[in-house]
Amino acid sequence: MRIVALEEHFTAPDLAGRIDRAAVAARGWPASMGHEDELAEVGDRRLAAMDAAGVTQQVLSVSGPGADLLDPQAGPAVARAYNNRLKGLVDSHPGRFAGFAHLPMTNPEGAADELERAVRELGFCGALINGLTDGRFLDDPTYAPLLARAAALDAPLYLHPGIPPEAVRKAYYDGLPGAASFLLSSPGWGWHAETAVHVLRLVLSGALERHRGLKLIIGHMGEGLPAMLARCDSVFTHETSQYLGRTVSQAILDQVWITTSGFFSLPPFLAALTTFGADRILFSVDYPFSDSAEGTRFLEGLPISPADRRKIAHGNADALLKLASTTGAQPSST
Ligand code: MN
């Protein structure tokens, strides 16, 4: 069975070296997130891990600090360099990789222009955005041109978590033993809460209403939202009925797709399946931070119909990202 994985990361250490290390540290990034060798390698070793796990195609995105830490003048050139590098990697291994663009988020118009170049000229599938930029979520009015361009291009935006702002780190996460503060602020809890808040802000601000064609993807089995949709409607509907045309849950179900990245257990999957449904769930690993073989074993063992398994494995991704047409990869018939 063809298996496409959406939230799969790489780095380009030489390009990352163009970003001031002091700025990286000031933003709260640790010196290393680990897995540096695997992140920097897009070739035989990665392909062997994909083959061993049965992953046909990875949609690649830049991991860690990037052009979003550069000033508005410097960001676009570095983002272009990342995307040109990624285009070369995709072209070197036909059918095995696709790309989400890296955007110069401190320059919203430049980000919109780079998204358009990446989609139209490089054949990329959309873009991946790491959390907040200078304390701003995508509902900030400065990002309206980017949201409008993404919708016009029919290019999904993958909302990935990032490092929380300093004030949030201090108030919510500091003061725990060892690495516990960092872990609680990031993959242990904070990242998931942050990305759910990001989606909810896009709904509650009216941004999704203004950009009805915008498609969002979030990882980690929906970042807790499947368990919260009914609660959101019960809490928000009195307020949102004054200014939105849909309930919060309907806006999310209309415009958000979710992936399995790093979440390979049944309870959150069942919550996702019974809220978003099999048409809105896409397979992902979060390579190299999660294990590809664990992910595909989970996919193969899910108590769902063969038709739903094919949708989650590749059908939804092929349709949403127009993969078969942009990469030349042949969708499997099984
Ligand atoms: Mn990730």
Plain-language structure description:
By secondary structure, the chain is of the alpha/beta class. It has a single domain (4-327), classed as Metal-dependent hydrolases (TIM Barrel, Alpha-Beta Barrel), CATH 3.20.20. It is built from 17 helices and eight strands. Strands 4-5-6-7-8 form a five-stranded parallel β-sheet. Strands 1-2-3 form a three-stranded parallel β-sheet. Helix 5 (75-92) runs parallel beside helix 6. The longest helix is centred in the first third of the chain and has 18 residues, at 75-92. It is globular, with a radius of gyration of 19 Å. The protein starts with a strand and ends in a 7-residue tail after the last helix. The structure holds manganese (II) ion.
Biggest beta sheet summary: 5 strands, parallel
Principal-axis shape? globular
Q: List low-pLDDT spans.
A: 325-334
Q: Percent of residues in beta strands?
A: 5-15%
Distance between the termini: 5 Å
CATH topology: TIM Barrel
Number of domains: 1
Structural class, by secondary structure, is alpha/beta
The mean pLDDT is: 95
Largest sheet, spatial ordering of strands: 4-5-6-7-8
Whole-angstrom Rg: 19 Å
CATH architecture: Alpha-Beta Barrel
Under the CATH scheme, which class? Answer: Alpha Beta
Element-by-element helix/strand order: EHHHHEHEHEHEHHHHEHHEHEHHH
Please sum up the structure shown:
This protein is of the alpha/beta class and 334 residues long. Helices cover 49% and strands 10% of the residues. The chain has a single domain (4-327), classed as TIM Barrel, CATH 3.20.20.140.
